[in-house]
Amino acid sequence: MSEQHDFGLVGLGVMGRNFILNVADHGFSSMGLDTDDEKVSALKEEGSQVRVDGTTDAATFVKALKTPRKIMLLVPAGKPVDAVIDTLLPHLNKGDIIIDGGNSFFEDTERRISYLEEKGMNFFGAGVSGGAKGARRGPSIMPGGSEAAYEHVKTIFEAASAKVNGEPCVAYMGRGSAGNYVKMVHNGIEYGLMQLISEIYDVAKKGAGYTNEKLASLFDTWNKGTLQSFLVEITAEIFAKKDELTGKDLVDVILDKAKQKGTGKWTSQNAMDLGIPVPTIDSAVTMREISSMKDYRVEADKVYHTASIGQDKPDAKTLENALYFAFIVTYAQGMSQLAAADKEYNYNLNMETIAKIWRGGCIIRAGLLEDIRKAYDRTPDLHNLMLDPDFVKTLKTIEGDARIVVQFAVGSGIPVAGLSSAIAYFDSFRSGNLPLNLIQAQRDHFGSHTYERTDREGIFHTEW
């Protein structure tokens, strides 16, 4: 182990092993660390043709790295990150760099930045999206924190990242915890898009009688048009997959309880703290929670029977347009949250750059993101994507189809919380007058909370 390596990585699970092998494939000698001998052995075996090594000893690991040491952590968020930092610290020198590549909560990242700054070391969060396959073939990477520290790993990250039109899907996001924050909102959007796809699936199958075979063909066709995206692509593959145990369509034998690791919930919670509405992301989190109530849902299914209202079933084009409408609205919600966070936390985010690096590698990559990038290129301080002239034209063209699908679903007793919330957000945003004047009157009536008027300046209170 006398060779001095360019890059170190802690956490040699599937994601970590794939990422370090990706880095090594691009000519950077790499060193891995894990407490599990089997994972270290797996790295050495799989990386036998490239300059990669591994160990279970922290001191050996750190000693094998060139200074300033560039060490990336791909371990579960929370206490494991702090534990790894404490394990490495006795062996590190001032100027060394620790990079958290996991889905850490952004406030934890701020705390760790301060903690390591006091010791003369650099820490920054770099969200990595693309799953295990993306880590191996090229993910989207969202680094934030010290720009000077990022410069030391910029070449490595650009080489390992996905490419779109030859451009790397990685860029410096901004100050402090910007990288982890952008990744958090990325995951919130991901929650929303997945929920919307599942609802269109439900409407098409239960309401319109589509078979899985037909759905596979439909989503494959959609992936060649405006809905081109990683999630639509893999959805087509899922519908076509057979179960090796039973020979049935695999999707039909998967239990309808969706798990979550917290990033969607964090997005919703922080949006509320910022006063930014993200109802489609909120709905996606809520539906995962409802899905966990399987026993109660089965019980309720036996006692409630929805009388379906006779209506025409939506055709494939209507379903496609409804999903595209809701996709746009969901991205709009996520991007508006990023814009608000930028002001609140002084990140110095560049919205065009975020859209640009999301075009490839990450889970929410989609052809739509090029249109989003262009919108922010035209208007860098765009308040909401739905105000961009091109998106205005598109949304006005397809909003009717979104309404048809929701009306059909509601009339058929099919839950469409995400689609409904997308339309409600759109309608609320485009309403010059909302009925919230009544709420202000109510608040003043029971709590003397005061109100403003439409016809004159000032703050008023009435003795009701």
Word description of this protein:
By secondary structure, the chain is of the alpha/beta class. The protein has three domains: 7-176, Rossmann fold (3-Layer(aba) Sandwich), CATH 3.40.50.720; 183-429, N-(1-d-carboxylethyl)-l-norvaline Dehydrogenase, domain 2 (Orthogonal Bundle); 433-464, Single alpha-helices involved in coiled-coils or other helix-helix interfaces (Up-down Bundle), CATH 1.20.5. Helices cover 55% and strands 8% of the residues. The protein has helices at residues 14-25, 37-46, 58-63, 79-88, 106-117, 131-137, 147-160, 178-207, 212-222, 230-240, 263-274, 279-291, 294-303, 316-345, 351-357, 368-378, 389-412, 417-429, 436-447, and strands at 7-10, 30-33, 52-55, 70-73, 97-100, 122-129, 140-143, 163-164, 167-168. The chain has a seven-stranded mixed β-sheet with strand order 3-2-1-4-5-6-7, with helices on both faces. Helix 4 links the parallel strand 4 and strand 5 (97-100). The mean pLDDT is 95.
List keywords for this structure.
single chain, 464 residues, alpha/beta, Rossmann fold, N-(1-d-carboxylethyl)-l-norvaline Dehydrogenase, domain 2, Single alpha-helices involved in coiled-coils or other helix-helix interfaces, 19 helices, 9 strands, 8% strand, globular
